Amino acid sequence: MSGVLDRPHVWLPGPTAGQRGAQRPLLLLHGTGGDENDLLPLREHLAPSAPVLSVRGAVLENGMPRFFRRLREGVFDEEDLRHRVDELAQFLSAAEQEYGVSPGSWCAVGFSNGANIASALLLQRPETLTEAVLFAAMVPFRAPPQADLTGRRVAVVNGQADPMATPRHTEVLSEQLRTAGAEVSVFGHAGGHTIDARSLPRVHAFLSNS
């Protein structure tokens, strides 16, 4: 298992399990060109007492880390995506053992490419996550795997002016997740392909109610 954990990542422990104020562990998944440090400031806004695991994408596109390959802008390599989902699930299993995290208790928080691997993880390996917050999320699978997401909570936080993660993507992704049984909340904002700071209090409230 130790070789699996050689993948670049950051682990920030929270309060001891069961301690007052402990929160569900966050799995942070960056966007294209980011790394394991990019989303760390989100913990303070979303779940300040949560342990955090932030992991780097294993694919390079013109030197920029990503979580899976794409054929061109907006067109995903779904064969590679499926492989990378299984690879990430294996990493999470090793991390759970190493850091004492309950299996499948993660709340994935992803931006853009990270949001896409998070929703793919939900749909392909639903046992790995309990919740997900998807910022600037597209649709990972044209025909998603059959999954039972009963009891899973998902927040889709997309911009109404986003040229990549369009309102149509928001609609299709939300429907795929709801069809699989997830409880989906959509928190739209007026901006583009970004994490809109004005949306963070709503996401904080969403996570506080879990």
Automatic annotation (TrEMBL):
A GO term, aspect molecular function: hydrolase activity
Keyword line: Hydrolase
Highest classification ranks of the organism: Bacteria, Bacillati, Actinomycetota, Actinomycetes, Streptosporangiales
InterPro entries the UniProt entry points to: AB_hydrolase_fold, PLipase/COase/thioEstase
Gene3D superfamilies attached to this UniProt entry: alpha/beta hydrolase
Domain Phospholipase/carboxylesterase/thioesterase: 76-208
Gene source species: Lipingzhangella rawalii
Region forming the signal peptide: none
Protein name from the UniProt record: Alpha/beta hydrolase
